[in-house]
Amino acid sequence: MTAPLSEIRIRKPETASAPSSGSLSESGGVSLGPLSSGNPSPAAKISEVRRFLLARGNSAFADSAFRGLMMTCAVSIFAIVGLIATELVIQSQMSWHKFGLPFFFKFNVDPDTKLPLFWDPVNGVFYALPFLYGTLVSSLVALLIAVPLAIGVAIFVTEMCPGFLRGPLSFMTELLAAIPSVVYGLWAIFVLVPLLREHVNPIFIAIFNAPVIVKLFGWTGLVGDDGLFGGVNLGLGLLAAGVILAIMILPIIASLTREVMSAVPNSQREAALALGATRWEMIRVAVLRNARIGIVGSIILGLGRALGETMAVAMVIGNTAEIHKSLLSTGHSMASVIANEFSEATSDLHRGALIEIGLALFLVTILVNGFARLLVWAVTRGTPARVN
């Protein structure tokens, strides 16, 4: 048997004076103290880091102030939205008291022409139905054009695009969202409207007024002289507004759709290919089906942008407070009527009616954008976007 080793204990250095040399402990071990009373132990020295922390003082006040500042910034967003809504409600009280909810769906009849009378500032007649109609029709036309293009761009970028082209194509698509709306409007006036009037609209007019089409589908009321492409071909109108809106919402829908499709796990793609699916079948079954909720959310978010667009629409829609079935006819939107007439409103009732239209547009935009963000979050939560 081996003899047990003696235990060695090292005491912590004490501030009080200690023996200058080591001494034996009662249990037979060796106790080591400070080497000398004149030279303190290295452990007793204050490090540079601790000296800096002690000199800086307590940071509790700074942390509390920073937390309060950040909280104020966050709460200010809700305060701004609440103040805007409150001001809109207060300023539109006169219109609410006189017209009420029928302001959005009622109209008068002109005793001379027997035609609907929606908006007559001279006689104090204000009804918002033509502006609701123009906003909805132009936005739906924009969605019909932009959604297929945006989904196609997103599919190509995420699934089929070569690596060297993916970055530039994504950048150019998102660059469209940075162009000011007034630039879109000027381009539409000088390029889009003549193009539609001289080349595009005549084709649709010929198709929708063809005798065979009128004979087969005349019962729908969508073809013929009173159909979707009847009336005078001015180039301006609901179709032009829908086309320019489609170009403006294309990058929004495409970028969000690409983000949602990138969030689909690669295991879904690999599983579909392992089962013998082609590339198109893999995209349709594994990618689009899993991302459909987020795609719908991106479409609704694009719809929210189209509903609130002002300058570009005001420059090409024609600005007439009328309701026509034809897409070639001129019209008005909720945002464009506010931009055109607010500075010229002479009566309080006129200003109240315009502000009430703004309140309706404000609420609709918030609801649409909130619902769209919820759908996108339902797909992409917790999943980082794939780097291009």
Structure description:
This protein has about 400 residues and is mainly α. The chain has one domain (about 90-380): MetI-like (MetI-like fold, Orthogonal Bundle). It has 14 helices and seven strands. It has a three-stranded mixed β-sheet with strand order 1-3-2, with no helix packed on it. Strands 4-5 form a two-stranded antiparallel sheet. Helix 2 packs across helix 14.
The CATH class, by name, is Mainly Alpha
Strand order of the largest sheet: 1-3-2
> What's the CATH topology name?
MetI-like fold
Q: CATH-wise, what's the superfamily?
A: MetI-like
| Category from helices, strands and their pairing | mainly alpha
Domain count: 1
Q: Helicity level, as a percent range?
A: 55-70%
Q: Distance between the terminal alpha carbons, to the nearest Å?
A: 71 Å
Defining traits:
single chain; 388 residues; mainly alpha; MetI-like fold; 3-stranded mixed beta sheet; two-stranded antiparallel ribbon; 14 helices; 7 strands; 61% helix; disordered C terminus
Sum this structure up briefly:
With 388 residues, the chain is mostly helical.
What topology emerges from the helices and strands here?
Elements: E1 8-10, E2 23-24, E3 30-32, H1 48-56, H2 60-91, H3 93-99, E4 108-109, E5 116-117, E6 119-120, E7 125-126, H4 129-160, H5 163-175, H6 181-208, H7 211-217, H8 238-262, H9 266-274, H10 279-288, H11 292-308, H12 311-316, H13 334-341, H14 348-380
Parallel strand pairs: 1-3
Antiparallel strand pairs: 2-3, 4-5, 6-7
